[in-house]
Design brief:
alpha+beta; Factor Xa Inhibitor; elongated; 3-stranded antiparallel β-sheet
Length: 64
Amino acid sequence: MPKMKTKKTFAKRVKKTGTGKIRKYSNYVSHFAQNKTHKQKKHLHKPSLMDKTDIKRDRDLLQG
C-alpha cells in the first residue's frame, strides 16, 4: 500500500496544536464585510478549535 499524502489545501488552512487539536480560522471574514458589525468582524478573525467529531475525520487529511 502506498504512503498517504498530506492534502496541501487543507494543511494551508489549519494548524495542529501541541496537544493534537486542530486550530482553524473562520470563514466569511471579508465577504459582505460592510454588513457586519465591528464586533462580528473582530471575533471572526480569531482562530478557533475544531470540534472533536470533525477532528476524527480530518486527522487523516494531515497525515504525511
